[in-house]
Amino acid sequence: MYSVVDIEASGGKVGEEKIIEIAIFLFDGKKIIDQFISLVQPDCKIPIFIQKLTGIKQSDLVNAPRFYEIAKRIIEITEGAIFVAHNASFDYRILKQEFFSLGYNYDRTVLDTIPLSEKFFPELPSHGLETICNELGILNPKRHRADGDARATAKFLEILLEKDREKYIEGVYLKLPSATGKHSFSKQIENLVKTIGIYYLFNNDGEVIYLGKSDQLRVRIDRHFLSTNDKAIALQKEVKSIRVEETGSMLMGEILEHIELLSLKPKYNTPKDRYSLKYGLYKIAGESQAQWDIRKIKNDIPELIIENKQEGFEWLAKLSIFYNKNIDDFVLPKHRSQTMKCLKNKKAINKNENNSSIFSSKDDIDIKKIFYPNESMLLVDSGKTIGEKTIYLIENSEFIGYSKAELATQQTDWNLLKKRITKVPKSKYLNSLIVKALKDNKIGSLKFKFS
Asked: Domains of the chain, with CATH numbers?
């Protein structure tokens, strides 16, 4: 028996998506014998592009049941059946995620129709559901709706089962890790669902061949061993052991990941894995004073590394206020209108605050004075345990390293923390990770003393 599933989700960051529509058809290989279709109230805003893609408006979900109200029905209709979806890793992951939030471990054997399409229909120009429907004459009048896509997937599964005269699906595919959800390291990582940290994958010679970070380590590591693409299969063949290092925070994970990737250069990581921030704020010399630019980083090193252009506009607006400068005086013309919008928003938000600058409009801009107002600072982040804190040390306006501290008195003792420090290489990128965390209020500053 097969439970053919399609989910429409709210979008957003991996691990934060919510179901907005679900369709499940219980299929015996020839006909549909039961079904469940429902909108779902996600209790979050639906991005406009998702509304346009699916046709599901925010107003459509106001009276829809919440996931916990339909969870029992989903369990019942999929119990004892093989979980089928087109790009099943997406639908299955989100469904497991929703059940996990209810304290329930949803576990099914999974069949993904994409790799089966690649095996049985290698001549197709691509293996997306829309292409398959067009090429094989499967009608789907409700594209990008759970009902329509699940029905189309059920029809495609019927075609696959008919074409599979050698019983590859039952005899081989459904016994693979990608279907069973079990692999050589499943037991080792089973308790790491909400664990934050970095992980190392080693080959038989003890070399690190892949390194990554996550705030859901089990889910992230599982993907390496449950994926069926060529790179994943090659990696699976080489991995002989795994090591996990808990960090307590994603910032600490990003810092360690960046340092280790530069040092170890694992063969299955790509250069872009080293950087989550890809844009830069550049200070360009001018005739009278420097002009500031925002662009993607290539070979030249910026004053500050940032996530995107919007973040750059926000920093330029801050500089305008902090240094009492007109935007026209120091921002390149192509960025002035967007920066002005940010400036107006900031002034509106801070209208009750005194924004008078201690600087003259003639002063040269030093962006470090904004994100590190003091040359020496202690910044506090979460630690691995409830009582532990990670303290980042800033000296001479540079991030120099980190220490762990449990007692409140230790967390503000500069000399003690300096003795315990784990130093980090001098790096604009590491500084920028710290600055972004400060800007996003993910870490705070501490008043400290010299012992």
From this structure: 2-180 (3.30.420.10), 186-273 (3.40.1440.10), 279-365 (no CATH), 372-446 (no CATH)
